[in-house]
């Protein structure tokens, strides 16, 4: 089949090319999208009918990067890609979060979107390309999908904004955001920055949206030419008579519990009690309709919560829109970790620990773009007990990876460089209680734990989750949202930063047409909340401790000449292994420029000093006439070989062992003996002549 490529210039000097209708034709929709030499295929497939009683929309999004796309082999023993990498999971989440709200209400058919990078030029990331391909495949398919979306990455580099910068260009960026949206409005934002102002953030989002509009119009034009006829979306299965009866039975009870200033557990139990009573009351009249009754009850509950907020400015727990829940904090709670903190905000609580390590503890990363290591990492754990639930624990979830990545990006700009603090740093946040904003609690607790560990962070960082309710021509911006406000609200906007600017953000908007003025209002309110939280954090700790924990490893670096590296390592690593075994220290050697850098780390200063002494002995000049303590390494008929320094053996001739005549060396010496010897001469070629008798008195 003849190729029919279509191209659009979506930003100055930036082109995107599409090929559709020729490949993967058994999927409901498919497309190949290209920027530079990076090519991503996306397919969209859906079941023709929903499963009976399906209570939620079962959408899955997968993103895969094969190493073959970049002409590389996977690292490790198995030369085949396995489970998705963290990068692939994060890319899939970005796409999922943008397309999910664009499916019509009531569509419950199982749907799968798969994006696969088939070619990579090492400069253009496939994630935003995959998002456009996913939207185009859905738009061209017969799957109900309301309108197309697009994603772009925007960065500020040397004061200038760049749409979809290359991997190389991003290294100089002080703002980097991925923005997803439709023709009408922005739907999703995620990014990191170096203490950017709220105004600069909004300006960048606005500019990104202009490119998004062009890409969305491009998809609409392709739909007219290649699009399939859409399936009819089934109308709601709720019987209007059932809906009316449920509303009659419920009355104002959900309005009442929305005004009673209840805790999470109290509000949940009160709602459950109402639903149970309504089900029992209508069981005879509407048999086998429990799921539908619950669905109507939830709709009424959502309406009630939103009405009280919009008309009375009161939240479920009694707060006003800009109020932040009670905060208490503590540092140094865990006695043997290198740093720890508890951050509690309302019914959300995180226990965060910090572990310091050496370069060998860095996380090795093998991607399409580069092979590198990561010295700062944050892991986020969300066990079932934190929400009072019982669930299987089956490894790290995609949600945990996503929340951990946001918290990591929030803090990493404040982590000192290796020149100032050459430790590998791992932060672990365990959420102990959760009623909204647990990722932001991880940011706050993580910042405090880093300071408790003595990490010289540039500034403390705090995070806050903002929400919004929109209705009847009005809107209310909420600070520090809790779980129900997230589920029933129209926006989840997480913002982190220092007192001087924003370091990361993540936004998901569930309704159309949020204006930039409203976005500015939310960011302004978020800044006020962030400053309040920073003040509360400062009550426990406001600056890094002057010293690291006594349980953290200590290390020191020394420089040697490059031609001395081999002597320190020794044949087959014999010498360096000997140093580590005898001193208990860990020794690493790197060649940096025209010097060798030796890093010695251990859990005590004494071990480090012992290792340094041995290394300096190897690299230093041996002086004839000096006395050394050595170890007998081997016995020969003509003498013994004595190691006076790691890797430096000398011959102790039989005639130099004692003043009296010796018939057999083994009569006097054994392998492993430690003896004092005098260095008589360093001969040509570096051979050492030793003497023991020179140190013995003559009889």
Main attributes of the structure:
Ribosomal Protein S5, domain 2; eight-stranded antiparallel sheet; 699 residues; elongated; alpha+beta
Describe the fold and architecture:
By secondary structure, this protein is of the alpha+beta class. The chain folds into 5 domains: 6-226, Ribosomal Protein S5, domain 2 (2-Layer Sandwich), CATH 3.30.230; 240-312, Arc Repressor Mutant, subunit A (Orthogonal Bundle); 327-468 and 499-507 and 516-538, Ribosomal Protein S5, domain 2 (2-Layer Sandwich); 554-619, Ribosomal Protein S8, Chain: A, domain 1, CATH 3.30.1370.10; 627-695, Nucleic acid-binding proteins (OB fold (Dihydrolipoamide Acetyltransferase, E2P), Beta Barrel). Helix content is 30%, strand content 30%. The chain contains 15 helices and 29 strands. The strands form 6 sheets. It has an 8-stranded antiparallel sheet, sandwiched between helices. Strands 1-2-3-4-6-5 form a 6-stranded mixed sheet. Strands 11-12-13-17-16 form a 5-stranded mixed sheet. Strand 7 (150-157) and strand 8 form a beta hairpin. The longest helix has 29 residues, at 198-226. The termini are far apart.
């Amino acid at each position: 089949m003849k190729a029919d490529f279509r191209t659009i210039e979506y930003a100055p000097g930036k082109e995107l090319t599409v090929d559709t209708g020729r490949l993967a034709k058994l999927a409901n929709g498919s497309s190949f999208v290209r920027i530079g030499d990076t090519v991503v295929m996306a397919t969209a497939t859906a079941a023709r009918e929903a499963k009976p009683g399906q209570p939620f929309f079962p959408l899955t999004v997968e993103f895969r990067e094969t190493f073959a796309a970049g002409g590389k082999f996977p690292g490790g023993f198995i030369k085949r890609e396995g489970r998705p990498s963290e990068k692939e999971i994060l890319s899939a989440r970005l796409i999922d979060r943008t397309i999910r709200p664009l499916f019509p209400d009531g569509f419950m058919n199982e749907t799968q979107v798969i994006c696969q990078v088939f070619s990579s030029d090492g400069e253009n990331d496939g994630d935003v390309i995959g998002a456009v391909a996913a939207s185009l495949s859905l738009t061209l398919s017969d799957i109900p999908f309301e309108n197309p979306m697009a994603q772009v990455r925007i960065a500020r580099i040397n004061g200038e904004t760049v749409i979809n910068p290359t991997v190389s260009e991003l290294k100089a960026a002080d703002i980097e955001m991925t923005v997803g949206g439709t023709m009408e409005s922005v739907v999703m934002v995620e990014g990191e920055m170096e203490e950017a102002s709220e105004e600069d953030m909004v300006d960048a989002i606005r500019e990104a949206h202009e490119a998004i509009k062009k890409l969305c119009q491009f998809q609409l034009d392709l739909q007219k030419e290649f699009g399939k006829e859409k399936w009819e979306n089934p109308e709601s299965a709720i019987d209007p008579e059932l809906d009316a009866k449920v509303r009659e039975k419920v009355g104002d009870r959900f309005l009442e519990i929305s005004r009673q200033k209840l805790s999470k557990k109290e509000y949940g139990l009160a709602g459950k009690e109402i639903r149970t009573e309504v089900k029992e009351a209508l069981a005879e009249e509407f048999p086998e309709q429990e799921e539908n009754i619950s669905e109507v009850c939830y709709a009424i509950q959502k309406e009630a919560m939103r009405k009280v907020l919009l008309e009375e400015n009161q939240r479920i727990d009694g707060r006003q829109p800009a109020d932040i829940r009670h905060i208490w904090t503590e540092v140094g709670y865990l006695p043997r970790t290198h740093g720890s903190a508890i951050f509690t905000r309302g019914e959300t609580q995180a226990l965060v620990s910090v572990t310091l390590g050496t370069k060998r503890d860095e996380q090795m990363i093998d991607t399409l773009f580069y092979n590198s290591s990561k010295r700062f990492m944050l892991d986020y754990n969300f066990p079932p007990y934190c929400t009072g639930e019982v669930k299987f624990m089956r490894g790290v979830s995609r949600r945990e990876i996503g929340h951990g990545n946001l918290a990591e990006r929030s803090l990493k700009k404040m982590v000192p460089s290796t020149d100032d603090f050459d430790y590998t740093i791992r932060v672990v946040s365990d959420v102990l209680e959760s009623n909204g904003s647990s990722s932001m609690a991880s940011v706050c607790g993580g910042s405090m734990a880093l300071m408790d560990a003595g990490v010289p962070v540039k500034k403390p960082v705090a995070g806050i989750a903002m929400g919004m309710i929109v209705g009847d021509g009005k809107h209310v911006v909420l600070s520090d949202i809790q779980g129900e406000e997230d589920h029933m609200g129209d926006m989840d906007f997480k913002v982190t930063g220092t007192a001087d600017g924003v370091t990361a953000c993540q936004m998901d908007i569930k309704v159309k047409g949020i204006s930039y003025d409203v976005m500015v209002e939310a960011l302004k309110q978020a800044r006020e909340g962030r400053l309040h939280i920073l003040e509360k954090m400062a009550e426990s700790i406001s600056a890094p401790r002057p010293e690291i924990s006594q349980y953290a490893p200590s290390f020191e670096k020394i420089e040697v000449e490059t031609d001395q590296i081999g002597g320190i390592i020794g044949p087959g690593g014999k010498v360096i292994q000997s140093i580590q075994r005898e001193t208990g220290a860990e020794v690493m050697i790197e060649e940096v420029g025209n010097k060798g850098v030796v890093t010695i780390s251990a859990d005590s200063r004494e071990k480090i000093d012992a290792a340094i002494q041995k290394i300096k002995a190897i690299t230093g000049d041996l002086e004839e006439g000096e006395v050394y303590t050595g170890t007998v390494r081997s016995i020969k008929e003509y003498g013994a070989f004595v190691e006076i320094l790691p890797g430096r053996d000398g011959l102790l001739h039989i005639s130099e062992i004692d003043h009296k005549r010796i018939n057999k060396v083994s009569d006097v010496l054994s392998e492993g003996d430690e003896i004092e010897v005098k260095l008589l001469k360093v001969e040509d070629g570096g051979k050492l002549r030793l003497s023991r008798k020179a140190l013995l008195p003559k009889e």
